[in-house]
Amino acid sequence: MSLTLSIIVPSFNQAAYLPATLDSIFQQQPAPTQVIVADGGSKDGSVEVLRRYAERYPALEWLSERDSGPAEAINRGLARARGDLIGIQSSDDLYLPGAFATVLDYFQRHPAIGLAWGDAQSITADGVLIWTGRLPAFSWQSAFARRLCIPQSSTFFRRDLLAEGEGWDARYYSCDLEFWMRLLFRTEAAKLPHVLSQWRMHPQQRTQAGKGILDGYIRMIEDSPDLARASSRLRRYAAGSVHLMALDYPEQAEPDAWSQQKHALKALLLFPESLRYNNPAHFTPALPWLRRPLALLKRLVF
Question: What are the CA-CA distances from residue 119 to residues 23, 52, 122 (Å)?
Fold first, then answer.
C-alpha cells in the first residue's frame, strides 16, 4: 500500500513568500495527502493567500490563530496530521521538483527507516541560489560533528514514531534540533543523496539569533534523558559538539579570537573525530599556524 504524506507549514506574516512555498508543495507529483498551514494570526495578507489556495487545493487545511511561536504552530499541525509520513516546511522555504517522489519511494523501500533527510540549497530573499549544502551520510559521529544541523526543509519522518501529543519543545530555541535528536534515539535514520529543498536566507530569520541558539543547544544536551543513558562515546561527541556550536554561534556579539580558540581546543580534545567533518580553519581562530598541521592530520587519519 502506498504511503501518504502530510506537510505542516508554520507561518506568521509571510505573505510575501507563502505563495511560492505552497506552489512548491502542490506542484509535486505525487501530491501530498494533506497540507496544514498553522498561521499565527497574520495581519499582512497571509489569510487571503490561504483562502485563495484552499479554493484550488482541497488538501489544504489552515487555521489562523495567535500562537506563542513556531513550536506551538507546529504542534497544532502535528495534532492534525494524518499521513504516514510528515514533513515540516517553513513558509519562506521551497521544496524542489521531485522531492516528494524521492522521499516516498525511499521510505516505501526501507520500512525500518523512520527519519530521513536530504541536502538543501540556500537562496536569497529573491530566490537567487547562494550555495548547495552537502551533508555526510548519517552516523552519530557525523551528526554531532555537524551540531545536529539536519535541514528541516529537507527532513521527513514516520508519524507513528510520535507518542500521543508529542511535538516540538518550546523550551529550546532550536526546538527542531532537539526534536531530531529525540527521534534519532528511537529509530533508524538515513541521509539521502539528493537535494530536496531550498532554504531562504533573510534578516527576519530566527537562525540569526546566535546566543539563543547556543544557549538552547547547551540546555538540550544537558537535559536529554536519552543522552544520559547513552554510551560514554556518544556523550563525548555531544559534549564536543557544544564547543563546535559555540564557534558557529558565539556567546558574545563580537567574540575575541582567544575565547573562541578555547572552544576550538576543547572541541578537538573531547571530539577529535569532528575534524573529519569540518574545515581545519574552523579550529584556528587565534592560532592560524595550527591550520596546516590539522589539515595534514585530517588527510592522514581520515
Answer: 20, 31, 10
